[in-house]
Design a protein that fits this description.
2-enoyl-CoA Hydratase, Chain A, domain 1; about 260 residues; 9 strands; alpha/beta; single chain; two-stranded parallel sheet; about 45% helix
């Protein structure tokens, strides 16, 4: 069975609000549902195109995939597996990349406020989370790229075409190569995206915070579904939309939002 695994990675509780305002997202509950629906004996293929997102939600998806029994899960990166999604899919038995796909790994980030003790604590938490993410990369890349090199790649924010991801051990192969000339690594192009190019690439993945969308939802005078179903997507009220189309406002905020 093939399942789209696209959009921003969010928690189960936040998925409803992103979808209400028209954003593509994926959450752990989506993965659990796909596993449950997958026909017995069939391969479960996750079709990936994601800029990343919530670290804890990605941790959960990685763990779900690693613990799978009786289901052969494969990730096919069709366009992008960045940030948190780059390691969530490493729980799959195989990771395959399209010739045009990219994988990006970097250090985790967070918005922090408070006094200098609070910021120091946030820095320590980020460092710990980074080590946890490194665990997933190191396990996958055993024998190809060591922990020190992977940490340096995260520090630099590394973008990888399919060839580089396979060479590093983060992916297992490149799709659609049967009967064609195998792709080779064209020199050192990893880490080449920087400055304006990097900012342009990341802007497409920015999203408003879940708290912002919850506030907008409440301002519409609506109440979230009692069951908290992340798959629920009620129709947007036409009379409210004419007065103030929050979906358009949310989309416009993409260019201004901070990327995590």
């Amino acid at each position: 069975m093939r399942v789209p695994f696209n959009g921003y990675v969010v928690s189960d509780d936040d998925a409803f609000f992103y979808r209400f305002f028209g954003y593509s997202c994926v959450c752990p509950a989506d993965l659990r549902a796909a596993i449950e629906k997958n026909p017995a004996g069939e391969e479960l293929v996750l079709e990936v195109n994601s800029p990343g997102g919530n670290v804890m939600a990605s941790n959960e998806m990685y763990s779900i995939l690693r613990a799978l029994q009786g289901v052969d899960a494969v990730a096919e990166v069709q366009s992008l597996a960045a940030s948190a999604m780059s390691y969530a899919i490493l729980g799959c038995r195989r990771v395959m990349m399209s010739p045009v796909a990219q994988m990006m790994i970097h250090l985790p980030a967070v918005a922090s406020d408070g006094n200098y003790h609070d910021h120091q604590h946030s820095a320590l938490v980020l460092k710990s989370i980074g080590e946890s993410i490194l665990n997933a990369y190191e396990v996958r890349c055993a024998g190809r790229t060591d922990r020190k090199a992977l940490r340096q790649m995260m520090e630099k924010e590394t973008w990888m075409p399919a060839q580089d991801a396979v060479a590093a051990g983060l992916a297992d192969g490149i799709l659609y190569q049967e009967g064609e000339t195998p792709l080779t690594i064209p020199g050192s192009i990893t880490n080449a995206l920087g400055g304006g190019i990097r900012a342009l690439a990341l802007s497409a993945g920015c999203m408003p915070s879940a708290a912002e969308l919850r506030d907008k939802y409440q301002q519409l005078g609506l109440t979230p579904p009692a069951n908290g179903d992340p798959a629920a997507s009620p129709a947007f009220p036409a009379e409210k939309a004419l007065k103030d189309d929050w979906r358009n406002s949310a989309r416009l905020s993409i260019a201004k939002a901070k990327y995590f």
